[in-house]
Design brief:
Length: 203
């Protein structure tokens, strides 16, 4: 998947059930380490809370790393429902922490599932979204005679220049949207009569 929706910024909503407060904090995490740091930051912000239930999905499509925790709630009543909402949202690179302040009334298993599911759904609804474009680093070595035409092609295919090396030939490094690499490669080969082809460097 070369493009997918991700959080644009962090959002927070508060949800009340039978005197318990459920504070949902949702944001972006492109690595598991970032997700865990996000979770810890919420714990540090509200250290007196009863529970910090979390769920995250790093990546998208067939390449996803997931995590969740009930954080002391009865098993399966909080982390799994929160993760199920994230899965159903179609959003990638997302982390959600639902902080609960116990209000004195036990909700029971069904009540907890309902409360955490709704807290997760409201957080997803409140979350600003943007599109993430998956880019790959490519390297191309070419004669100087092709350099200017190459740079024009790079613009056409939404490439982002990363670096250049000038020697006997010129070598250019650029990030291209994954979906644009095949047609870009075809055009470079045609331009160079088959003598030059980009090499993907971060497979």
């Amino acid at each position: 998947m070369s493009r997918y929706p991700v959080p644009r910024e962090t959002a927070r909503i508060e949800y009340h059930v039978s005197n318990s407060r459920f504070i949902s904090t949702i944001g972006r995490a492109e690595t598991v380490e970032t997700a865990r740091a996000f979770i810890q930051s919420v714990r540090d912000e509200m250290p007196d809370a009863t529970h910090h239930v979390y769920a995250f999905r790093v990546g998208y499509g067939s390449s996803v790393t997931e995590g969740m925790s009930d954080d002391g709630e009865p098993s399966g009543t909080s982390g799994p429902p929160a993760l199920a909402v994230l899965r159903g949202s179609g959003i990638g690179d997302v982390v959600l922490v639902i902080t609960r302040y116990f209000g004195g009334t036990k909700l029971g298993t069904g009540g907890l599932v309902y409360a955490y599911t709704n807290a997760a759904k409201e957080a997803v609804t409140a979350l600003p979204i943007e599109e993430k474009v998956v880019r790959k680093l490519v390297g191309v070595t070419m004669p100087y005679t092709l350099y200017e035409r190459f740079k024009r092609l790079l613009e056409v295919y939404d490439g982002m220049l990363d670096g250049e090396e000038f020697a006997g030939d010129v070598t250019v490094y650029a990030y291209l949207p994954q979906e644009n690499i095949p047609p870009f490669t075809d055009e470079i080969r045609e331009l160079s009569a088959g003598q030059v082809a980009p090499i993907v460097l971060d497979e």
